[in-house]
Amino acid sequence: MSEWWTYSLSDFLLFSPRTYYRLFDLYNADLWPAHVLALAIGLAILALMVRGGDDRWSRVAGGLLGACCLWVAWAFLFNRYATINWSATWFGGLFVVQAVLLALAGAAGGVESGSRLRRLGAVALFTFALLIQPLIGPLMGRPWTQAEVFGMAPDPTALGTLGFALLAPTPRRRWLLLIIPLLWCAISGATLWTMGAPDALILPAAGLLALVLAASRR
């Protein structure tokens, strides 16, 4: 039996890059045009984040984002990704927990208003997840049918959650909302890196930016 230090990340990959991206191909084909609704929900959350000012936007935005996490958990992680990766059921459980945390955080109300840098970073991260990240795969040579859309795929949904979490009014609530999306950024980044994907560092870089912004003082 080989010693554990002789293994690399690729030895633990349960699928090929072609199989992984084909999953998005089939997923998008099965659920279109739900992507239009997901985009509309994302734009609504972004508008509420920009508007801010009271507790009502927090309740609505938290509920909408929590619903997106639940959808990703059920439709993609449990029912699709789990067919090629047994650990996807655990990932789906994390997204369900995140949905509950977002709903509770939204119900509690409150929004960060003292740090302009953090607000700008939060809106920038969410905008990137909603409008830019779905374009990255196609721009790097993948078919448009494999695009990963916010509210439908885990990567942009986790990235958008990072942005929303940065607007939590207290450090405790902020870090509580950040734990799971940060963990997903590390997991997804490692998976893409193992597959040799050119966009492997995007999520880890976004997670690092969120960490810096979350730790910054007023």
Descriptive labels:
218 residues; mainly alpha
Describe the structure.
- The chain has helices at residues 17-31, 34-51, 55-78, 88-108, 116-139, 154-165, 171-194, 202-215.
- It is mainly alpha-helical and 218 residues long.
- The chain has one domain.
- Helix 5 packs antiparallel against helix 8.
- Residues 4-12 have low confidence and may be disordered.
Please summarize what this structure is.
This protein is mainly α. It has helices at 17-31, 34-51, 55-78, 88-108, 116-139, 154-165, 171-194, 202-215. It is globular.
What's the gyration radius in Å? 17 Å
Q: Using the alpha-carbon principal axes, give the shape.
A: globular
State which percent range the strand residues make up: under 5%
What is the averaged pLDDT score?
A: 87
How many strand elements? 0
Uncertain stretches: 4-12
Number of domains: 1
Structural class: mainly alpha
Number of helices: 8
Distance between the termini: 54 Å
Helix coverage percent: 55-70%
H/E series, N to C? HHHHHHHH
Biggest sheet details: none
